[in-house]
């Protein structure tokens, strides 16, 4: 069964190392590992999920694609219950379609070998994930966005270097996105409208603290706008 990916998962797939051994954490239907093997990017893969329903769906897809001998499926909470030999063989780890905080928790759950190519696609709280990555010694090598209908997704590519760094609020909001790229620019513009909408909601509140927070959000939105103008 030929697997076709949506734009979000296609972007994740583009970041995978050719010839690598990929681990897809929170795989759900296992579309990504099946696609990567069918398209010849990887020869084998491992995929995991915490829940039985998604894992059953993953088994079904793998079976329908006839890839049982090439994709190993595991029930695991993040990296915690995976066999050590799997973790040690991994070249690429994908954690996609979850909140930024959960992705950060999954990555910090257990040590992956140094040099593993992390491909992370946070659906929410991307800034929390970016902050976690840089504070924990990962470098964000690149970041790209994908527009799919009315949704915009970001995919962060990171690697462990051991150099820890605290990101400013602005740095954690823009990540490694390059506003010269149309989709990345759209992602950043959406961030500024979200900040401005939240700020407008807050000024109607009476508390001084909320008013200050609203001002702070507007200032951050302006900083991002200026960055888009300068770099875009
Ligand atoms: C929205 S789906 C995303 C599926 C796929 N990665 C994608 O991007 O299309 C999130 C999946 O992550 C799984 N999940 C949530 N928390 C998890 C955890 N701690 N460890 C492993 N899988 C988890 C869920 O069961 C679900 O199947």
Describe the secondary structure blueprint for this structure.
Blueprint: H1 7-14, E1 21-25, H2 31-38, E2 44-49, H3 52-64, E3 71-75, H4 84-89, E4 92-99, H5 100-108, E5 117-124, H6 126-135, E6 138-148, E7 151-160, H7 169-174, H8 182-203, H9 208-231
Parallel strand pairs: 1-2, 1-4, 2-3, 4-5
Antiparallel strand pairs: 5-7, 6-7
Helix pairs in contact: 5-6, 8-9
The site of S-adenosylmethionine has 17 residues, from β2, β4 and α5.
Concise structural overview:
This protein is an alpha/beta fold and 232 residues long.
Helix/strand order, N-terminal first = HEHEHEHEHEHEEHHH
Strand content: 15-25%
Distance between the termini: 41 Å
The helical percent reads 40-55%
Main β-sheet: number of strands, strand sense, barrel status? 7 strands, mixed
General shape? elongated
Structural class: alpha/beta
What do these coordinates show?
This protein has 232 residues and is of the alpha/beta class. The chain folds into two domains: 7-167, Rossmann fold (3-Layer(aba) Sandwich); 184-231. Helix content is 46%, strand content 23%. It is built from nine helices and seven strands; from the N terminus they run αβαβαβαβαβαββααα. It has helices at 7-14, 31-38, 52-64, 84-89, 100-108, 126-135, 169-174, 182-203, 208-231, and strands at 21-25, 44-49, 71-75, 92-99, 117-124, 138-148, 151-160. Strands 3-2-1-4-5-7-6 form a seven-stranded mixed sheet, sandwiched between helices. α5 (100-108) runs parallel beside α6 and α8 packs antiparallel against α9 (208-231). The longest helix has 24 residues, at 208-231. The chain is elongated. The N and C termini lie far apart (41 Å). The mean pLDDT is 96. It binds S-adenosylmethionine.
């Amino acid at each position: 069964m030929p697997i076709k990916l949506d734009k979000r998962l296609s972007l994740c797939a583009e970041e995978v190392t050719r010839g690598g051994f990929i681990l897809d954490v929170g795989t759900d239907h296992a579309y990504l590992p099946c696609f990567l093997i069918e398209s010849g990017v990887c020869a084998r893969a491992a995929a995991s999920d915490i829940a039985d329903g998604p894992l059953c769906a993953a088994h079904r897809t793998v079976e329908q694609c006839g890839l049982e001998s090439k994709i190993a499926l595991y029930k695991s909470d993040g990296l915690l219950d995976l066999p050590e030999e799997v973790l040690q063989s991994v070249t690429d780890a994908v954690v996609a379609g979850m909140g930024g905080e959960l992705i950060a928790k999954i990555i910090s759950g257990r040590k992956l070998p140094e040099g593993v190519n992390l491909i992370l696609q946070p659906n929410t709280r991307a800034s929390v994930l970016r902050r976690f990555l840089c504070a924990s010694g990962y470098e964000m090598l690149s970041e790209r966005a994908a527009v799919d209908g009315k949704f915009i997704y970001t995919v962060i590519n990171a690697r462990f270097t051991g150099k820890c760094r605290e990101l400013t609020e602005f740095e954690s909001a823009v990540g490694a996105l390059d506003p010269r790229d149309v989709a990345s620019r759209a992602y950043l513009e959406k961030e500024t409208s979200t900040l401005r909408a939240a700020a407008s909601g807050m000024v109607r509140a009476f508390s001084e603290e909320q008013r200050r927070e609203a001002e702070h959000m507007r200032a951050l939105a302006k900083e991002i706008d200026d960055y888009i103008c300068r770099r875009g």
